[in-house]
Design goal:
By secondary structure, the chain is of the alpha+beta class. The protein contains two helices and four strands. It is globular. The termini are far apart.
């Protein structure tokens, strides 16, 4: 069961806020008891261009973003990707380069 504590989109667009909560709840059925918060982000606070979702389950933290405006299915797809373990916080896809000069070891 997911408890939605704060949804920054509800003041701007209640239908979009409902879409986010519905798709997250439907996609994250394997999650036990968790708390979810949705934040609006962007250069212009009056017109955010992305939403950041923060989901906390016991000692696990999942965090991902969705571009706005979101269409049906966008939130579910991003939620599946975040919960599958891809792109965890602090992990890089490729190892960092050690040196800019490739001739030296």
């Amino acid at each position: 069961m997911i408890e939605f504590t704060d949804n920054a989109l509800s003041g701007r667009d209640p239908a979009l806020a409902g879409l986010f909560e519905r798709e997250i709840a439907e996609t994250a059925v394997t999650i036990g008891k968790a708390v979810c918060r949705t934040e609006a982000e962007g250069a212009d606070p009056q017109a955010p261009d992305r939403a950041r979702i923060v989901l906390v389950e016991n000692d696990k933290l999942f965090e991902w973003t969705v571009a706005l405006p979101a269409a049906a299915g966008d939130v579910a797809r991003a939620t599946r990707r975040a919960l599958s373990g891809r792109r965890r916080l602090g992990e890089r896809r490729r190892p960092a380069r050690q040196s800019l000069d490739r001739r030296r070891p």
